[in-house]
Each structure stands twice: as structure tokens, then as C-alpha cells.
Amino acid sequence: MAQLTNQPTSQVLQPRARERRERILDAALAVFTRRGYREATMDEVAEAAATSKGGVYFHFPGKEALFLALLERSAALLLQRTQLALERTPDPAGKLDAALDVVLRLFASHRDLARLFLVEALAAGPAIQEALLAIRRRFAALIASELARAREDGLIGPLDPQLAATACFGAIYEVVTQWLLSGSPADLAEAAPELRRLLRRLVGLPDRSLDEDGTL
Description:
This protein has 216 residues and is mainly α. It folds into two domains: 15-61, Orthogonal Bundle (Arc Repressor Mutant, subunit A); 70-203, Tetracycline Repressor, domain 2, CATH 1.10.357. The chain has helices spanning 2-35, 42-48, 53-59, 63-88, 95-109, 111-118, 126-152, 161-182, 192-203. α1 (2-35) crosses α6. The longest helix has 34 residues, at 2-35. One of its GO terms (molecular function) is DNA-binding transcription factor activity. Residues 41-60 bind DNA.
């Protein structure tokens, strides 16, 4: 009988616990964006999440663990959308364009995520730097695999796919960071056509856009 009593309770509490964890992560994103990693406190996160400080610590043992979880959740979203875009693009030469569009669309519509990735993470400790490097490598690996396939198909010349993918990520990183810190361009989408052309030239793909009007 005890098992029959406990089972419904577990089924009810588990979704509630997941919901609270997501609410804490959403609150943490807002706090880290507003206050910065160094100045943000767990008390502020708890207040923003409308939960107790103990409730925050139940899910995350400290600020670093909270930031790492937030970084991983954001990275999973970016990587999932990029992978889906690559799978939906039949033209091998258009896959780089598709990946670029995903990144710019995501960061343009979620400026707080962009700031978390590209600005606040820089002020965090070694563990977060290591996690950020791993995320960049995972993203670059997606692009590198497509570049390797394009090379094998004769669409591009001989190159190091991993190095080229890293260079592509670096170019996107600099453009988005400039947008975050200086507000230029005013609309991140404005950078898409020129950045697309630059990345294509970098890897030796034909200079053309996905869309006739050159928009995202």
C-alpha cells in the first residue's frame, strides 16, 4: 500500500521540481544579464525566481554550478537548432549559410543569451571557461563535419575542416560581440549578407546567398 501511496506523489512532485528548476534558470539568466556574473548573488536569483534561497541551493550547490547549468541549457538550444537546420538543408554548399542564420536569429531574438555566452562567461572562473570552450568545440565540430563532406564532394578545395570551422565561429563571435557592446549594427540581421559572403570566401564556397533578397 505504501508504494501505491508514494507513486502518485512522485509523479506530481517530479514535474513540479523540473518546473521550479527551469524557473530558477530563467531568473538566473535575467539576474546575470542585469548584474553580471561577479555581482550577481544567489539571493537575487531566489528573489527573481520567487522561491527560497534553499530552493535554489536544492538544485544548484552554488553560483558557478548555476551558471554552468544555464550555459549548458543555452548551448543545447543552439546546437539543437543548428543540427536541425543542417539536416533540413539538402544543398551541401548551403549548410554553412543555414548554420550562420540559426546563430544570428537566435542571438538577435535572445540578446540575453548572447550576452551570457559572449560577455558574462568571460568574467567567470576556469570551470566555466572550460565549459565554454567545450561548447565552442561542439559547435565547430558540426560545421567541420559539413566542410569535410563538402571537401570530399569536391565543392571546396583542400583545407583543414576543424581549423576553418573554428575561424568561422570566431568571425561570428566577433560580429555578435561588437553588436552587444557597441550596438552596431543596430539590427544584427544587417550583418548577415556580408558575413555570409565572408564565410563563404573563407572556405572557398561560391559567393551567393540563401535568399534572393539577402535577408535572414
